[in-house]
């Protein structure tokens, strides 16, 4: 089956330009809006809105221009950045096409005046101007469209009567591009060893099977030395350890694995896994007769909050773990989205997928030639390093709260899937994220039977 159609809206290169220098603006700042002296890069910001998506707020640099200057002078900040991204599925695209106003992107520019002591007054927010552009989402399903790139006036005067350069201006780039994704759906909870389907619209096709179990000392297939990635922590009487889930293709061959390499144990005197001593998973890929680490995922319970999980994420490149910065967290009660997404603003090259070879998963081999739910809960988003930021969208998975049945849905960018193992590795990562919700449950709470360690198995 073919990948699902997605469209990605990218807003970037934001800057605000004022017509007067600070020394000449004081006499006329009271009538038409804030003067340059009232605004700095820290107090000028944009609210970016599209349809029903949560608005994104970003600070923007301020540029100054005097009558004697032919070019603007940048006071601070970097205008070559991605400010906001919105991803739309096929159904969201079709909904947006029903009414013209549902395809309109809005960028509102605000300033905030600060009091002399540095505090912001309650009524200090002031709208400088608004920029709107209608996006051709239908065309963007098949080719990249540059909806706008350049300066736009933010003033309210008639274009025929105003003097050129007399109003504030906004610089903005808006690009809409196809962002096809493979979508996978677990047919049950990962600990129940479900099938995994590829989904395309209303059609679905089985592509993987999962096998949940407890890794033991006699497991010869896991030839990777786990001692190099475990923390060597003291063994506690209460611990959750040795979980693993192996992803098989339809021929029965293992193509990815998520293995718990550091036990999830409560910190001394508490019932929770702490940030200072997290549990950890390795996501492994087959490499001949051994397993090769691809990703390390650590998880813990955030301090002071009973239902919030934190994660730390590392990507292995040539056997070396590369840290990836993270923000936000996932609610264990409400669930949320786990997202790996990089900016598309750089020109550096990097490869997220480490494998080579043909992609023989059903009829998908043709691609070799070539956003998530918004419900309650938290989105957990990773920011990739500078060398990896051209990757764009990599993957996302939606997990439910621990008291709800969770059948993770996984989206993977097409350009990050070149073979069966690529797809399977992302599915294994999604399973590890979901299982971490249970692994980080308070130790005063009982796990379901499928997750409880058999008493006679020697678990390492």
Automatic annotation (TrEMBL):
Residues 21-40 have a biased composition (Low complexity). It holds the Pfam family DUF1005. It comes from the Eukaryota. Transmembrane segments: none annotated. Residues 19-40, 346-366 are annotated as: Disordered. InterPro entries: DUF1005 (IPR010410). This is Formin-like protein. It comes from Arabidopsis suecica (Swedish thale-cress). The lineage of its organism: Eukaryota, Viridiplantae, Streptophyta, Embryophyta, Tracheophyta.
């Amino acid at each position: 089956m073919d990948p699902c159609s997605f469209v990605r809206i990218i807003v970037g290169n934001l800057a605000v330009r004022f017509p007067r220098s600070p020394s000449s603006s004081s006499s006329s700042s009271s009538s038409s809006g804030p003067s340059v002296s009232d605004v700095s890069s820290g107090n000028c910001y944009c609210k970016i809105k599209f349809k029903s998506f949560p608005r994104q707020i970003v600070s923007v640099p301020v540029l100054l221009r005097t009558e004697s200057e032919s070019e603007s002078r940048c006071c601070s900040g970097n205008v070559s950045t991605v400010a906001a991204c919105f991803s739309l599925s096929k159904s969201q695209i079709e909904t947006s096409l029903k009414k013209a106003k549902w395809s309109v992107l809005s960028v509102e520019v605000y300033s905030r005046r600060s009091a002399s002591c540095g505090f912001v007054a309650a009524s200090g927010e002031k709208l400088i101007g608004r920029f709107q552009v209608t996006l051709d989402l239908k065309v963007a399903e098949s080719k990249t469209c540059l909806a706008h790139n350049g300066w736009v006036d933010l003033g309210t005067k008639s274009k025929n009567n105003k003097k050129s350069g007399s109003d504030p201006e906004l610089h903005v780039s808006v690009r809409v591009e196809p962002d096809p994704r493979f979508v996978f759906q677990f047919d049950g909870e990962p600990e129940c060893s479900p099938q995994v389907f590829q989904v395309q619209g209303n059609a679905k096709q089985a592509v993987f099977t999962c096998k949940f179990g407890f890794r033991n000392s006699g497991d010869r297939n896991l030839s990777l030395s786990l001692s190099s990635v475990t923390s060597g922590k003291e063994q506690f009487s209460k611990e959750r350890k040795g979980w693993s889930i192996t992803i098989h293709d339809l021929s029965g061959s293992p193509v990815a694995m998520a293995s718990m390499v550091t036990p999830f144990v409560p910190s001394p005197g508490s019932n929770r896994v702490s940030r200072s001593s997290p549990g950890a998973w390795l996501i492994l890929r087959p490499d001949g007769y051994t397993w090769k680490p691809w990703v390390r995922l650590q998880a813990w319970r955030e301090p002071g909050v009973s239902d919030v999980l934190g994660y730390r994420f590392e990507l292995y490149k040539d056997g070396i773990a590369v840290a990836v910065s993270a923000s936000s967290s996932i609610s264990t009660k409400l669930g949320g989205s786990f997202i790996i997404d990089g900016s598309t603003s750089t020109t550096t090259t990097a490869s997220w997928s480490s494998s080579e070879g043909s992609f023989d998963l059903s009829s998908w081999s043709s691609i070799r030639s070539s956003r998530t739910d918004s419900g309650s809960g938290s989105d957990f988003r990773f920011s990739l390093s500078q060398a990896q930021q051209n990757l764009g969208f990599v993957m996302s998975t939606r997990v439910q709260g621990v008291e709800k049945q969770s059948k993770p849905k996984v989206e993977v960018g097409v350009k990050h899937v070149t073979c069966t193992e690529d797809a399977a590795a992302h599915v294994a990562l999604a399973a590890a994220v979901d299982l971490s919700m249970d692994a980080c449950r308070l130790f005063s709470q009982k796990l379901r039977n499928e997750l409880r360690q058999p008493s006679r198995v020697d678990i390492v």
